[in-house]
Amino acid sequence: MSVPNNFEGFQAPNAENYLDFQKGSWEPRPFGDHDVDIKIECCGVCASDLHTISGEWGGCPYPLAVGHEVVGKVLRVGSKVTLAKEGDRVGVGAQVYSCLECRQCKNNNENYCQHQIDAYGAKYLDTGFTTQGGYSSHTRIHEYWVYPIPEALSSPDAAPMLCAGITVFSPLKRFGAAPGKKVGIVGIGGLGHYGVLFAKALGAEVWAISRTRSKEADARKMGADGFIATNEEGWAEPHKMTFDLIVNTASSTDGFALKEYLSLLDIHGRWNSVGLPAGEGAAIRNQDFITNGCFIGTSHIGSRSEMLEMLQLAADKGIKSWVEQIPLSKEGLQQAMKNIETSTVRYRTCMVNYDDAFGN
Ligand code: NDP
């Protein structure tokens, strides 16, 4: 199968009509020695896609194809590529480049490199090419950000792990989710459901912390040992100072009582907010967490080594994503974005049937 001269994709046309996806095409950046050309098979839908095209995060270049949870097949590799070969089934996440030379890159922290490039809406400094995401026919990616997908994982199950999964797996690993630790996951959406699955797989006691009880039965099936609904009067009281780590995936701060959530942590426990809501964020005073001296932080996706470890763990432990598949089309993307807006997605959408959208 040959690589076309132009790649095609469903692009958000402008900020006013960001859900009016139009099929567009573009010339990919020049093929480099370390590049891998991939024919995309499916792509998960992240709340970040919506934050981006709606302008909530401050705007993006249009027209733009978003989507950063890609699985596909390698069509061709550059002359110096050693990490992938033609015919492999591979994945690509939210990051597609970093310098690989700085202090952060050399310490397996390339997801914090100052020269990193996102999977969509970012410019390569050398060519000026603006990255286009995974609601597209093909993509061209530096081999370092191309990951082999274990046989045991189906493509629609693996795709959402490449952003949603890794974004919770990284802080769970780094901050010690393990046997004997009590871990809370705030927000049971795409990221949050992986938070429950992976915290359990790492051996921790895991509690789902959601706004209502509507997701309780599902969260318990995912492995949650306990469930807290924050719309209930006095919800924090029985759980004060009992958690070692809480990973917060909430995508909005509307009505978010940060002080109450922090009160759940044990002494020097850790609050890690991976959610990236629009707006100013929550206000916090030192007095709000002086009772437990907890640490407040955030984290950005994960590194290549964490990605490989997560995929292997998922394959070894038979971790099953909760995925709704929708055929890729303008209407399909609109439906997927609406399901995020209304919090009705259970729990990640994966866009599929790419051959119908782009041909063979
Ligand atoms: P989803 O919409 O799938 O899930 C978000 C969940 O947050 C909802 O299901 C809901 O859970 C909860 N939530 C929403 N609003 C509120 C609120 N006002 N108060 C409390 N809880 C709320 O989104 P994703 O999982 O795809 O993404 C989550 C966030 O993570 C987004 O902001 C996204 O941009 C960000 N993100 C960050 C990354 C990083 O590297 N740090 C990488 C990828 C995504 P429930 O109904 O259970 O209350």
UniProtKB/TrEMBL annotation:
Its EC number is 1.1.1.2. CDD domains: CAD1. Belongs to the zinc-containing alcohol dehydrogenase family. GO terms for molecular function: alcohol dehydrogenase (NADP+) activity; zinc ion binding. It comes from [Torrubiella] hemipterigena. The keyword RNA-binding does not apply. Its cofactor is Zn(2+). One of its GO terms (biological process) is alcohol metabolic process. This is alcohol dehydrogenase (NADP(+)). It catalyses: a primary alcohol + NADP(+) = an aldehyde + NADPH + H(+). Transmembrane segments: none annotated. Keywords: Metal-binding, NADP, Oxidoreductase, Phosphoprotein, Zinc. InterPro entries: ADH-like_C (IPR013149), ADH-like_N (IPR013154), ADH_Zn_CS (IPR002328), CAD-like (IPR047109), GroES-like_sf (IPR011032), NAD(P)-bd_dom_sf (IPR036291). The keyword Metal-binding applies. It is an enzyme of class 1 (oxidoreductase). Residues 190-315 form the Alcohol dehydrogenase-like C-terminal domain. Residues 32-151 form the Alcohol dehydrogenase-like N-terminal domain. PROSITE patterns: ADH_ZINC.
